[in-house]
Amino acid sequence: MDYKELSKKLTLNRKNVWEKNDFKTVDDYTENYKKFMDYSKTERKAIKYSKKLLEENGYKPLEFFEKEGKLKDGDKVYYINRDKSLFAIEIKGKIKNGVNIVGSHVDAPRIDFKPEPLIEDTEIAMAKTHYYGGIKKYQWLNIPLELHGVIINSKGETVEVSIGDDLKDPVFVISDLLPHLDRNKKAISEAIDPEKMNLLLGTISINYDSEEKIKDSVKLNILNILNEKYGIIEEDLISAELEIVPSLPSRDVGLDRSLIAAYGHDDRICAYTSLTALINSKINSRSSAILLVDKEEIGSDGNTGAKNHFWIPMLKKLLKLQNEDVAIAIEDAINNSILLSSDVSAAFDPNYKDAHDINNAPKLNYGIVLTKYTGARGKAGTNDANAEVVGKVRKVWNENNILWQTGELGRTDLGGGGTIAKFFAEQGLDVIDAGVALLGMHAPYEIASKGDLYETYLAYKAFMENYK
What we know:
Strand order of the largest sheet: 1-2-3-13-4-14-20-16-18
Number of strands: 22
Oligomer: single chain
Distance between the termini: 39 Å
Structural class: alpha/beta
Shape: globular
Helix content: 25-40%
CATH topology of the largest domain: Aminopeptidase
Strand content: 15-25%
GO cellular component, one term: cytoplasm
CATH architecture of the largest domain: 3-Layer(aba) Sandwich
EC number: 3.4.11.-
Keywords: Aminopeptidase, Hydrolase, Metal-binding, Metalloprotease, Protease, Zinc
Largest sheet: 9 strands, mixed
């Protein structure tokens, strides 16, 4: 008996992405990804960039087709929900027969302005903040930060703010205490008081060349600068969404340039790969779609999060355009559809081996990660995909030469986490998690493999074109 051949036949063997893909092809794709990431510092900007790409590739808003009163194969439709979430679909056949959907989230861990943020203390103007999502607070101290978002002024107008992404702009900093004075012996998770994470805004008094004393004159100077540039007053900040993000452009990592560092890989890396997969797919089996949602990092709540299911009313409108009995057809459409919950996973880190089960931890450079369940401890809060779904997805990928691996989010009872998967499974869709493995997830600068980025794009494309 040839035991080597038997081993090859029976055992699970994974292939490195660089054994399959040409570096230049991967790198060219990565360069376009960098452009997306360097623009998409917030969920609003990610949706705006996605809309532009979709329209450049023939997608039209839902309203266009409603005015036309008809829908046919090949039509490309998108709908944007409150500038923070998006659903886009290419039509192939009857929607009631099911849709292949890849769903990602475009929000990322960050720091937000509080509703009344501006303060002055010892002639230093600062902004009070509240962190968003799971962060290690110490990682955000004494690094360059940018400010992005919108302000709704007293006239009801939307004022866009973007400071720090241009090299001519100033950046912002949240100061840390020097080690000489820091004798804090608390656990690192407790050492940073979030109420002290105040953003430095300025130190010059509005009347620095006058002897006249004015209360909070540095804060007043900051308000005056904002008023001159954006036409706002302090009360307008109450109706604002101002997000503090790292001022760190996407960069190649390593002497071989095989890795890429960026803010917000989680989960914009899956959003971009699914977006480009939809645009470049030759839809030949059934309708395929992407879903980009907000607020995953804080539980998927709100009217722009995954729990909102704004895509279902859109599907109903599309079914109506296909002359279906909507009340019945929408149930069929949902039950016959599948969603890849495209979220990132924690790559095995050789510096922190004890955090992983090495036999079930995804590795860099081994392709897209298929995650049957997430959750915590006894699989609490997870979708836990059915075996049939796992089987069909891996069959599609194997038949299309896609490199894939399985993964968990850390050791049992140590790790855990959630994705949008369970909210769609509750509606009746078949759902499984599938995304890119990262190092340093939720840090201001996360690390991904360029090869995994590209292979994930190919995996989503194969899924959209061939799953049925």
